[in-house]
């Protein structure tokens, strides 16, 4: 018998999930479904993302709700728009063979009138992010008086993002006798409190060890000098030719810098961060899902809710500020029973953080050596050879060129042809990695190296030292040319064009160099400046400023319904730029 039938799921649903490739329940499904199907328990499930949580609560909901009625009976709250859409879509797929199931996804950054229309038409399951949900409740546009089940998905994330008050307000509009099902990857005190305040004697389930990472994830770390980090990162990527990865940075600026450097170096990479509009984020995500991108460079907040299967590697280019975020980051790989590797690039001073993470995830890290140049070259060569074996040959198309091809190779032996062919792709790597230094550090080297590190962030092709490189959140999408933006900066700040060096105009932002003596003037000049209704933001690009307060701020952006709102906000204190890092460090939990 199909194991889902044994769990109590009806044939119609089992047929639908079989089509999705669900052959047997995942551990959380196996344990949660029978409990939730009773409909009589509050429930706390501790499980990582990617473990099959959506079906663990989605299938029981489909069994328990009355679809002949058209009022909301279940409310699923989750932290991000991406997750919200995913859950709604998944439930619809599970319900494919059940008539009259109506699911609405309610999230910010999209037209509220469409969502209101769907609600008016009648829905039984509302999947929502808290900000937009509250907005709709505030308009008196939804009636939760018949809600029987509330699911709080990724509860720890929602609290991290500051949704506690919104959740309280939303829950207060639902009946006292409803059942609450809470899912969380971690169980910090705040989540524990929710369980205590909102639930009666909940059934608790832990899949895997508490707070531990997914057992299918291997955790690796590399010790490198700060200045070698990017080069080491590239070696790791190059020695994994089939990598499909998410690279985490701590700040928006760092995210952009790494993505730019990678693109310049010929990789299929792009960045995902809070300064992008929802439309831009969707575009990047689509390219990543379609595999047009091999590397997605993201901040923690922007990457929440990303549920792309088959991510082979998560790379912590910088360790997260909050230890808990490591679990969220690494949970983006090894989904749906697959295996994955979470890599951290650290300097010697950060080794203590690795030890702390080990305690939290209950699993040791493996120390790895940054591959030497010749090892990378070998990996690339054999990846190429492998590709030759696996390439799909289109006989119809190639056949007509073959005689000519054969003729032109007539004077070469088979060995000669193979050699030349392999060299074609391969010379690039050979050249690049010829004489490549060993990037691994020993303790002595690291101490002197780190002191030098900061100024040489991206190594040899750095910017002039008497100039400071700044970031401004305006670019070609705002119809600026390089000349325009030069004029705009000069006019706004009253500095001479001579004080400005190189300008790198990008889509939504621009990097520009300013003589060190004029930097303060530029910062002052851009205080409280708006451009087309958007707050203009200038930051020191070299120091990795950006969304280092991202957690708090992004809260607002999600609540306001989209990634852009962070950009729209006014700067709270004029000279605040320099303080960001310091403030953050005080708050840091390391
Ligand atoms: P979730 O944790 O709900 O986001 O699920 C992670 C991924 O696993 C999704 O792509 C699901 O479609 C997939 N999945 C969930 N349950 C199963 C199952 N029983 N068998 C195979 N894949 C599953």
TrEMBL record:
Cite the SMART domains for this sequence: DEXDc, HELICc
Any idea where the Helicase ATP-binding domain is? 34-205
Give residue ranges for domain DEAD-box RNA helicase Q. 2-30
What PROSITE patterns does the record point to?
Answer: DEAD_ATP_HELICASE (PS00039), HELICASE_ATP_BIND_1 (PS51192), HELICASE_CTER (PS51194), Q_MOTIF (PS51195)
Q: Where is this region: Disordered?
A: 539-590
Single GO MF annotation = ATP binding
Kindly state which keywords UniProt assigns to this record, in alphabetical order.
ATP-binding, Helicase, Hydrolase, Nucleotide-binding
Give a GO cellular-component term: cytosol
- UniProt protein name: ATP-dependent RNA helicase DeaD
